[in-house]
Amino acid sequence: MLFENIKENFPILDQQINGKNLVYLDSAATTQKPNEVIDSLNGYYKEKNSNIHRGVHTLSQKATKDYEKAREIITRFIGAISSKEIIFVRGATEAINLIANSYVKPLLNENDEIIISQMEHHANIVPWQMVCEEKNAKLKIIPINDNGELIIKKIDELINERTKFISLNHVSNSLGTINPIREIIEMAHQNNIKIMIDGAQAVQHLEIDMKELDADFYCFSGHKIYAPTGIGVLYGKKELLRKMPPYQGGGDMIKSVTFEKTIYNDIPNKFEAGTPNISGAIALGKAIEYINRIGISNITKHEDDLLNYATSKLKENSKVRIIGEAKQKAAVISFIIEGIHPHDIGTIMDSQGIAIRAGHHCTQPIMDFYNIPATARASFAIYNTKEDVDKLVEAIEKCIKVFA
Amino acid sequence: MNDWDDLYLEVILDHNKNPRNNHELKEHTHHADGHNPLCGDRVSINILMDNDIVKEVSFTGSGCAISTASASILTETIKNKKRNEIEKLFKDFHDLVTNEKEVEKKLGKLAIFEGVKKYPARVKCATLSWHALMAALEGEKKTTTE
Ligand SMILES: Cc1ncc(COP(=O)(O)O)c(C=O)c1O
Predict the structure, then answer these.
(1) Which pTM value belongs to this model?
(2) How far apart are CA A220 and CA A93, in angstroms?
(3) What number of C-beta contacts closer than 8 Å exist between A and B?
(4) Low-confidence ranges of chain A (pLDDT < 50)
(5) The Cα angle at residue A258 between residues A256 and A263, in degrees rounded to 5
(6) Looking at beta carbons, which residues of chain A come within 8 Å of B41?
(7) Of A142, A221, A240, B141, which has the maximum CB count within 10 A?
(8) What is the spatial distance between Cα B116 and Cα B132, in angstroms, rounded to a whole number?
(9) Is B27 part of a structural domain of the chain?
(10) Is residue B101 part of a domain?
(11) For the domain that residue B43 is a member of, what is the CATH number?
């Protein structure tokens, strides 16, 4: 079996927490890193560290080559047309802020509208609130149903001539819902509206192809796809990126600077002001090569099996309620246990060496929708096994015993 | 012996299930809402002060077992105490759960929260109601654990 020995690729998993073997079920917060990624960081600083795009010396050329190679790897991974469409950013949060400020803000007039949904991460809410406030524009919210699915027919009702932009997550980090973004992107385009997809919880689970999806902008964070923190990707269609003003000014994003006139660089460099996270970008390339070797469709299948197994196990327990039961789900399970606060669940789990997340997962509007303060969340990745699920289920039973 | 016994003592579990003084207080002189934005826990404290002494105290709100038990035991502890005694208790309680220094003073029932210091992520749960209490005494309406 392909996934049997995968844990061995992740050195951090080979340790004990509170005297128990670590069971890591918090990959939606951040994934662990395989040896290849760790070695890439190490190797970069040991052998190639230098600044890119500006040195004639050999090290700088090597670093530049590796950095740009990572961009090529990502281009192929997400099925973009050109590597010029790949902008390195710090993560999904920065990507959304960039689009909010450089693309959407200049379009907005008073009383214009931006559409997001009830199930967004705060990173896909707050930047829009900020530009709306500045421009006196309005934020409109696509509602969800009790299963945690977008109510698609409401989108048509929300769209009108004042709608200037739509931004939606591909997969919800607290519900696991996979949204039918292909369909929604088409709806947006039929109405001549541009749309951004927050893929922070999607690219590590599902095959994506920009040419097929036709999203105008798409983003994700490296650290949720087995790469380091501090590196992420913003994809944008070339013709849109070219027309946009830069987000930040500085080195690398210019062609020439005089005090009278500065000429900006071409894309993608126009959006990469300053010295970027070079080692992080290269390591992200390595993480994607690692995934490619396993095969993203194999990953989807493996995680689907885990999700189905865990879901049916949790459902056997009448005290457990799963929050988010969409028909299409990625390997994320939010749950609550009758009479037990998620925080207490988290502590009992931790005492058993099991890492889950307890809280609102940066999605307070979802908690408000279900009228709960928080959930416990188990999220799965390539290194998880059915044995991990069994341990989770066992620990849930312990929680119930303690607080009965 | 379970792995979590040092935290979830019987008394704490009992106060979580059957919290004392867990209701509104119609007649009160001081009130504050405590909020832990990290986990969404909310605890409100109501106090009726008379002559610098706590005559009545109650709490409302929802939270985890640690914050509920802590609020419940707080209300039992501070009744009929003077403001300066309460301030001292808060300091000692804070030291107890954060382990900043050994607490020598007898803390009575509050001492059962000593286990919290091994769980840094839970310190704010234990102190939420105390922060709300101090805010109430100082005449503030709202406080957070941040
Ligand atoms: C759906 C979603 N969007 C955005 C983000 C923000 O990602 P980052 O903090 O890496 O910028 C997250 C992270 O939790 C997420 O799950």
Answers:
(1) 0.94
(2) 9
(3) 58
(4) none
(5) 35
(6) 341, 343, 373
(7) A221
(8) 19
(9) yes
(10) yes
(11) 3.90.1010.10
Which of the residues of A are catalytic?
362
**Within-domain flag for B5:** no
Q: Tell me which residue has tokens 């607490």.
A: B103
Task: Give A355 Cα–ligand 1 centroid separation in angstroms.
Answer: 19
Which residues in chain B are closer than 8 Å to A346, comparing Cβ atoms? 121
pLDDT in tens, A166-200: 999 999 999 999 999 999 999 999 999 999 999 99
Query: Which atom of ligand 1 is least distant from the CA of A170?
Result: 1
Contact at CB, A342 and B39, closer than 8 angstroms = yes
For each of the domains in chain A, give its residue range(s) and CATH number, in order of start: 6-25+296-399 (3.90.1150.10), 37-293 (3.40.640.10)
Residue A103 phi, psi dihedral angles, 5° rounding? -100, -50
Q: Which residue on chain A is closest to B17 by alpha carbon?
A: A403
Residues A331, A314: Cα–Cα separation, whole Å: 14
Query: Do the beta carbons of residue B54 and residue B137 sit within 8 Å?
Result: no
CA distance A183 to A156: 12
Interface test with B, best of A344, A352, A391 (most B CBs within 10 A): A344
What are the residues of chain B with a beta carbon less than 8 Å away from any beta carbon of chain A? 2-4, 7-8, 13, 16-17, 38-42, 62-66, 119, 121-122, 125
Q: How many whole angstroms from B37 Cα to the centroid of ligand 1? A: 18
How high is the ipTM of this complex?
0.88
Q: How confident is the model at residue B145 (pLDDT cuts 50, 70, 90)?
A: low
* CA quadruple B19, B24, B27, B33: dihedral, nearest 10: 100
Residue B144's pLDDT band, with cuts at 50, 70 and 90, is low
Which residue, judged by its Cα, is nearest atom 9 of ligand 1? A93
Whole domain around residue B98: which residue ranges? 10-140
Average pLDDT over chain B, rounded to an integer: 90
> Beta strand pairing status for A254-257 and A232-236?
unpaired
Q: For residue A78, what pLDDT is reported?
A: 98
pLDDT > 70? residue B100: no
- What's the gap between Cα B141 and its chain centre? 17
Residue B145 belongs to a domain: no
